[in-house]
Amino acid sequence: MSLLFASTNLGKLKEVRSILSPLEISTPFDLSLAELEVNETGQTFAENALLKARAFAELSHLTTFADDSGLEVVALKGFPGINSARWFAGSDHDRNQELLKLLKDETNRSAQFRTVLCLYDPQTKESKYFEGIIKGQIASHEQGEEGFGYDPLFIPEGYSQPFAVLGQQIKNQLSHRSQALQKFKEYLLSCHTNPLPLS
Length: 199
Prior knowledge:
alpha/beta; Maf protein; globular
């Protein structure tokens, strides 16, 4: 069983290979597909995950999975959501600082991370989805050096420090992506040989 993970995000690739070990996962870098850019025009995480999985699957002819993830802030009515990586041009640090500006007068710092993972078969055109959600709070300032994206700001429920301080090991046990990937891994292992046809 050969699976392709449709992402060139090095942070995600590291998380995925760690969580799905010992399953063998190919990446776009392995197949000279790293230059492929998918226009994420979907209105939901599931739609965008499907767009990415399908695009890479059709080029590679491999069963492919992709995730779409985002931060949903209660005081901002779910913003930035599906646009979490795109709503502000610049580095992760720049984006985090802009988010803090939006929340500077807010006392409600509640937020959640959501991941939807799509598994797509280019032969049957079938897809299957796996979701993970983790609730928490937005910190008042960035902390920590590990991880990527909003990790320096997001404090998971039950903890007092953000993911970037807690570290990769704890994040991989708790995170939205980890939850979705664990469901995905259980599904793959239950299939024994070929994860498809999907039902």
